[in-house]
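re: that chain from earlier
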Amino acid sequence: MQDQPPAPRVSTLEDVALVAGVSRASVSRVVNGKPGVAEHIVDAVNAAIARTGYVPNRAARALVTRRSGTVLVVVSGTDTSRSGPWGPGEVLADPFFGRLAGGLMSSLAPRDVHPVLMLAVTDDDHARVVSYVREGSADGVLLVSAQAGDPLPQLLTDAALPVVLFSRPDHPLALSYVDVNNRAGGAMAARRLVERGCRSVGIITGPLDIPGAEDRLVGFREAMADHGVAFVPTAAGTFSVESGSAAMGELLDQGVDGVFASNDNMAVGAILAAQDRGLTVPDDVAVVGFDDSTSALMCRPALTTVRQPIETMAAEMAGLLLERLEDPDMRPRAAIFDPTLVERGSA
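^ sequence. v structure.
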């Protein structure tokens, strides 16, 4: 029986220290991201790590830093028992969530922080999220709440756990969040439809117990009032293509020639409903969406939409959470981003 070749030797902190010409303690401080290390030492240690092929032991580093190197990305309010709107398949396929997840991963990866996805809808799910962080399996939570009255933001805040929320909470909470100026976005959509010469405009809202959906409606109505329009027909949707199609039917029955849909999925449904009636978009009825997701480019005509910078907002979420982990006493902050109008063929 032939002898097996010896396993390759694994580089250690001592090897890195020898090559860098610094102490083991200095290497440890650099590897664990401790502050106060001189820049020339950081450069020397990083060069030595590259030369020796040293790979930090995550378990050992966790003992030193008391960090797991993992954060939870939680989509709360999803229905894991079905495949319809906000079920697991719907969430993972939704262009909005794809952009958000991509932005989070792009921001976290260079910092050697790994996201773990959880979908939560039941009380047991919510308790599991809180326990996961309390037990040290994750350092904090990046939370996307898909329903009004979601108890999870309050549960995480009450437990004093690090959390950053996507979109303004539906009641005041001591947590950081990022959002887009939804009122300004609704106003942009209104002005675009007025500029096109639409004389009877309506809006397909999202669920109005969600702050962002309410803000888009308010901004749209206020801008239309500025143009002398006292009444705006509304029809409610659930952010899905199907709900947008059904709501568009209600508005078309009221004779509208311009529609703002509160997200791109519903705008796509609105275009399909108009085309099913033999109407031409935008000549017979103009449509404006919200988000600037990939579906905005896939429909025909391509969708004029209000863009929210989701990738930038996701990066800000990650940054706020990592700042909170470095400084547990950091006061909650809100980061509000400006929307922009992207003009395409539908309006």
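The chain has three domains: 13-65, 70-180+310-337, 182-307.
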